[in-house]
Amino acid sequence: MGSEYTYDEEGETWPFFLLAVLSFILVPVTVKYLYNLRSTSDAKSENASIKGAISQEVAVENAAQINSFQAQKKSSKIFNWSLLFIVVGWSAFVYVALNLVKEADLQGAFDPYTILDVSQFASERDIKSKYRKLSLKFHPDKLPKDLTDAAKQEMEAAFIRINLAYKSLTDEVTRNNFLKYGHPDGPQDVSHGIALPKFLVEGKYSSLMIVVYFLLIGVLLPTIVGTWWGNVKSYTKRGLHIETAGLFTRRLTNRDPTKIYTVYDLLDLICLSNEVRTTFKHLDYNQVRDLIARHLNRNFEYVKTNPSLEAEKVKIVAMLPKLIEGLIEIAVVFRQADIVVTACDLQKSIIQAVKPEGKYQELLQLPYVDRKAVEKSGVKKLGKLFAVSKEEAGKILGIEDKTKLEAALSVAASIGSLRVLESEFKVPGEDVVTPASNAHISLKFLVKSPKLKSCPEIDESRLKDEETLDYMRNPASINEKQPVLPYSYSPFFPSNVRNSWTAFLLSQKDAKLVEGTTSYKLENVDLSNLALDQETWKKGEDVTIGTFKINLAVPTPQNIGIYHFRLILKNNAYFGCDVDIPVELEVKTPPSLMSLKKKEVDSDDDESDISDPEEDTLAGALAALRGQSTQPSKIEEQDDDVSDNESVFTDINTDTEDEGEN
Amino acid sequence: MAEETTEPVQEQIKISIFTPIIYVAVLVSIFVTFSVVYRRRALKKLTKVEPIFPENHTATLYEYLKVQYQNPDIPKDQKPHEKVMKAALLRRAVEAIRRSMKLKENEPVYTKLYQDGLVGDEVFQQYQIQTKFQELELKDIVQETESYKKGWVQTFFPVAQEICFNEALRRRLYALDDRAKTLSHMWEHYVAKTEEVNEKEKEVKEVKDVKQTKESKPEEEPKVLAESKPE
Amino acid sequence: MNIAINYDTKTRKLQLPAQAAALVPQLNLEIEQLNVLTGEIIASGSEVPLPATLETFNKDLSKMIKKLYEGGVQAFQAGKYSEAVKQLSIGIEMISRRHKFESFQGTLQELSLFLMSRADSYLKTKDYLKAFNDADMLIGMMMCTPDNFLRRGVSNYFLGNYEDARADYQRGLSFDEDNARLQTELEICLDKILEENGDYL
Prior knowledge:
The complex is a heterotrimer of chains A (662), B (231) and C (201). With 231 residues, chain B is mainly alpha-helical.
């Protein structure tokens, strides 16, 4: 027959083809579906296993709407188009597999071991003895006389196969043939099969087939690929609609330097996003803003008067954090710290349903509080609640009911802030931070409940990092060794929000984010300190020290000197536990021994003569800062990108003041 | 084997000579249509994208005045004065400088946004288009200056830049009241409240004055230390 | 452009019809700015505005401004703080009247002096929000002197923004580590933060 095409007349191979195609599509879709399902695991049950999680049940006025929103979200995760697709797909798969796949004819395949019924590792002697036994049984001369012709022929065929098998395992030539071509007789006919019946290709349906082919290749494929690509292109990598991203980018480019951007300005901007506009086409801009304002003021009037609008409110509120995060991400690239910080505050306000104006957010985020009472009390901090008597705390919060007060206070006590013990730039394996090295910021802190006062003395030695291989390779790997943070306590927010802190590094010089840095998430914190009582806390032996390592993508400055930064950690859900600390980076040349090893370190710098080289450079660095002629460095922002109306003023010398005052 | 293969080939040719031609033609035409449609859409999308900067009123205003200035039908005394034209051109230059600087300042920002996939392609394309456009705008302005006074370019741009900075400064100054309003709203700090607070709190002595008048500086600080309790 | 702009040949000023002005406020603002510049060019007397140098800096105005400044400082020293605010505010107003093509550097120097002194006066009159605003503007102009951070920090402190005040003092200290005034104020502020939180060291 030679090389020829054969068609799948009997329907032997196309089911296999179909099964292969089906499984290629079905398996990834199913895996993705199951993964999605898994990721919606219950927040409550997960929080139960995390120490320090807040598990306070609080009745909220719009519980019905929130519950139905969550149920809808849950059911839409289970019952969706991909479920239908998976069910139909797998049924088809099973049907094809059970009914259409015929017993595979594997006669063509030749396996001497199975034929002789010996193991692959059998010795020649075993093979020989087995062959003898079989050939005795199947030898044409030894067959019983009363067999039918058909049976006889079968036996003979079997005998020939046995012979062949034996030869292929013992005879040199046959063995080679078997190894090379898979058959002791040498090369076999190769036939290319088309997994379609012949009538479709050569019969009268051939023209139809061509049409189908063109539709498939020329129309369907480009359309599918086109729409897929279009979809991919209409969302950024972070899942923000590109129109929204464009809007944010334009606004940040054209920001008015004379204007203070408040939480409300950012909220206005977010309400203009494509996501909000297309999802809530039936509401106009002012209605959307009004609904959000109602959320922020914990106004539940619509629960009674207009439940469907209350449901819309829940829906709008639920989609805001993602948009805010998108805005933060873009603002980070613009290095506009004020926008970033304001957006973080907006995020909290949304999640806790607390109005952004004023200074009472810390107390207003608690359940059952009476806003008027809080604002009248003049108390702004959570810690103060635990410095006064319970009755007084109740008065401050405006809660008379004892159990409600307990609930509010227990929530307050569980909002842990980070008490920073140590914050410095470090280079793994070095005692100092060397120029142009890969440093990280090392933060050591205690989680502190507002009810705990003062701070224990912690021995230096407890702050040291173990210099494991993991740490040397990637200091941030330590972060993940701590327990993950629980879901936030946010009864007014319709979705579950995982608690986290986000860190931003600012330059003290221009109060902008440091070039090349991004936002860094702190998601693993051991909260066990929250359960400590004052005495154990003050003693300090049993407190848990938390660590946060921030790997900086940018190398430290080339020049020796002191650089000033400001590290801000914003919590995504709670007020009153942000961190805002100055961090100093002192870049030093390594000790002389080190410099001998490293040849790149400049040669004309003989530190061995000078007892205290830093002081010299320190003064120099400070002078440079004063004179504004700081050397361009990598981590520091360079001042020469004069442009925006504000940075235009950079070239002013600081002498102005002195001149005038003399 | 040779005999076997030649026969079917002859048969195929007999079936249709045009088959491969049609095949290729159809395929090519599909691809061409696809690419044309795709490009047209992309272009349409690009024009739909809002430009980075809002409308440039200075440029429109200048063009408007120029048409009148050069219009022979308008009597000379009705035409805009030459100094008006110069002022308009300066203002146009101020805006052009401001925009160019803004673009230059934000170059790394746009590159990073684009590289990190935080914005769509068209935002970056818009950026590039805008940059080109600003170059042309500056060139155009240079030509315009020459039409009023030879060699004016030399001093023109420094002056325009000075105006640009000075205007930025004045904008900041004029915005002070609005800023105060915004802040008092966000901080819920109202004047009535301040006064209430003021009664109880002690003033803080101020720095520059301390230096200048050489008043007893140490005396002041404890005051702040001890008595600065706004509550 | 479909809107007709009126041109007054005498005053050489453009004007939008009132209706149109309300419709496109941006354009209206632009026209106003153009009119100001035209007036300034005409007033300057030269064919084209000259580049900003010391010579082109309006000396008469400088004298008046200086007088106002001195008057303001004198009032401050005499303890008449609201009088000082008044004088300094007039001075600032006058500075903003300078021709726009005059030296930016010079304007900025004058202005920063006035703003610093006015911020100080506002602190005295307990207009902390206004003091904050002036100090904030100085810092916004990249006048990052420790004193300006002190000004903004103190304003923040009295506005009850203790965390902001702390950040201001700390930023000021990053420019001058040994600034004693900033250090003491920072201490006071940190104590205040503890006190407000019902905490202690």
